[in-house]
Write a structure and sequence with these properties.
Elements: H1 8-31, H2 36-81, H3 113-118, H4 136-140, H5 157-178, H6 180-194, H7 201-216, E1 224-226, E2 229-231, H8 246-255, H9 265-275, H10 285-291, H11 306-324
Antiparallel strand pairs: 1-2
Helix pairs in contact: 1-2, 6-7, 8-9, 8-10, 9-10
Length: 325
């Protein structure tokens, strides 16, 4: 027997099915007036019968079916795949070699490669010896040695680094061009919102530069995990009014989702944690993530897109004209 008892779930299912059928048979026997002993015997017989039938069926599948399949293949496969017998095929006699063996020719009668190429009997590609680093003297003298081929100048590590930087810069410019509208809206909102709380114009410009950096590489603001604490990137601190609380900075982080939709809550919270590191020194990253969608009131106003403002203004004008009429 080649069957391996590895399908334990299947055997468990068969055992369960056998038990159910055997129990049904036992209950029927009891209702027909059989005593408990007879009913138990019927239970065991039915259980063993079902298991044995499955075992026989499994053996048939494993052993009998491959034999039948092999016989069928031996009988019909050759007829289907190769309907023409080899002995029925006719083959043309091979053509006589039109070339005379070179060992039967004299040295003067053996054609050169150039002559064979001129007659079109072989393909022969002429080359410039200088392309292979060989001088004319080496070729004419029949020397087997050739001058060393000068390899292509290898790229230096600096050249490779400069090339990668160009690729990264090109990618950043393409992303900026595609998202320029959102970037302009974000800078405009942060300028207007933070102007009352950041009195230094240079700090305002620095904040705008951080926003551009966030669009280009949001992952650069993510912290590194060292043990059980986060280590954030260091940037120049901004002087911000103490009127702003942690909920205000969390709302700022939440507003970033209106402009940079591909970022996550952790990206946005890490941005405010890095840019306003001094003000959020005692506020955890998890708190900023949690409070981004908080409905608590703060000093930071809700961001309303210009399209929504125009739509509301248009509706207001329509309502006003309707009331006049």
């Amino acid at each position: 027997m080649t069957h391996k008892y590895e399908s334990l779930p299947i055997w468990g299912l068969i055992a369960l099915l056998s038990a159910v059928l055997a129990m049904s048979g036992r209950l029927i026997a009891l209702t027909k007036g059989f005593d408990d002993i007879s009913a138990n015997v019927i239970f065991v017989v039915i259980f063993l019968f079902v298991v044995a039938m499955y075992f026989i069926f499994q053996q048939f599948i494993d052993e009998v079916t491959p034999i039948i399949g092999k016989k069928i293949k031996e009988r019909f496969f050759t007829i289907i795949a190769y309907p023409v017998r080899y002995e029925d095929c006719e083959f043309d006699e091979p053509e006589q070699d039109k070339y005379v063996p070179t060992d039967e020719l004299s040295e003067d009668e053996i054609p050169t490669m150039s002559e064979l190429a001129a007659r079109g009997e072989v393909e022969y590609q002429f080359y410039d010896p200088e392309e292979f680093g060989m001088s004319d003297d080496n070729v004419q003298d029949g020397s087997d040695t050739a001058t060393e081929v000068n390899p292509l100048p290898a790229k230096t590590a600096q050249d490779a680094s400069d090339e990668l930087e160009k690729i990264r810069e090109k990618n950043i410019q393409e992303r900026r061009k595609a998202n320029q509208k959102n970037l302009d809206a974000a800078i405009k909102f942060f300028r207007k919102t933070m102007a009352p709380y950041i009195t230094n114009n240079d700090d305002i410009e620095q904040l705008c530069k951080h926003i551009m950096d966030f669009q280009d590489a949001p992952d650069s603001f993510l912290p590194k995990e060292e043990g059980h604490r986060y280590v954030f990137p260091q940037v120049k601190s901004l002087k911000v009014s103490s009127q702003l609380k942690s909920i205000d900075y969390a709302h700022l982080a939440g507003h970033l989702s209106q402009f940079f939709r591909l970022t996550t809550g952790k990206h946005r919270a890490s941005f405010v944690k890095v840019v306003f590191a001094q003000q959020l020194e005692n506020v955890s990253l998890e708190t900023l993530i949690r409070k981004q969608s908080s409905k608590d009131k703060g000093l930071i106003p809700e961001y309303i897109p210009e399209s929504r403002i125009k739509k509301e203004e248009k509706a207001e004008k329509t309502k006003k004209w309707s009331s006049i009429k």
